[in-house]
Amino acid sequence: VADYKALAPKFNPTGFSAHDIVALAKSSGMKYIVITAKHHDGFAMFDSKADPFNIVAATPFHRDPLRELAEECRRQGLKLGFYYSQDQDWTAPGGAAYKTGNHQPPTFHWDKAQDGDFAAYLHTKAIPQLKELLTNYGNFPAVIWFDTPTKEMTPALAGEIVALLNQHPNLIWNNRLGGSYPGDTETPEQYIPPQGFPGRDWESCMTMNDTWGYKAYDTNFKSTETLLRNLIDIASKGGNYLLNIGPDSHGIVPPPEIERLHQMGQWLSVNGEAIYNTQPTLFGGEAGSFSTTEKNNEGKPKFIPAWNWRSTTTANKIYIEIFTWPSGAFHLGRLPRNVTSAYLLADKTHKSLKITRTREGLDVQLPAKALEPIATVLVLNT
User: Fold this and answer.
1) Whole-model pTM?
2) Domain Glycoside hydrolase family 29 N-terminal: where (predicted)?
3) Mean of the pLDDT values across residues 89-94?
4) CATH topology of domain 285-381
5) What is the CATH number of domain 2-274?
């Protein structure tokens, strides 16, 4: 713990620009940002009077990135949420820890400086810091994003946090507080659920490469095609896409991440109406099917996704996001609504496409080539 805390005076992210981060998010088509206020290491990325191990008091940077991000989000019209590790804290006495390596139960601590009472940690650090986060940043946060609850977070202790959260009725908080509280949102991590979470709000949190933070050697970035297909797949199942960026120690976002986000933003600038404020697919089978032979890690039938097309809907439109361009016509075998006309969203003239109805369903005549290389959106007016 002492060795880790000794690193704080060397942390000086002078390249950090709240303006640039928010502008990047906005240009990529994002509507909200979630920033890590405190992760499991216990270091607070904000000005905290509750504990001195924070970016303002313990580093030469002496600035509050959360305050700067809040100001920029207000200026540029985005929402801001705060991730806060309420349970695990590896540098505060009494903070919880997950089992790693050969660390021993019941605490899984590896330094006597970590030992202490969990309830005392909550009352002297976590809850006071949550109060700071909920009161010091104007109309933000819109979201509190909890993580990794342990058995130490009893229903009674979690209830104290919930009482604090309930003082902010417009606040959204997720399902990772602990103490059996379901929260407002489901949080599948690094995967997209086969059928979403019907009846529940949810967001898939995923990395752009293989790490949540910054690793100079991790260049395994997902392609823009994969990222956009993920976004469309998630939207078709009623979810949000919480896509991570990992700035380096200077506060600079890696160029490959910027490049991919700009490309996603370009697609959304043309096709965003098929994503924003839409409802899930009226079909379902287009996403794939469960294998009759293969099992997943839980021993259940493995879901095998299909990547030909997805669909989202509004009250009077069905959007078909086509990944694999068909030759001639696009066929729909089952139609839950009456289709009156069709066009391609990327066609600025919205030229009507020929529709043919048969006993087997409906065929929409398409041009020979797709208008978008990753996903061309077919709009069906209903």
Assistant:
1) 0.96
2) 3-273
3) 98
4) Immunoglobulin-like (2.60.40)
5) 3.20.20.80
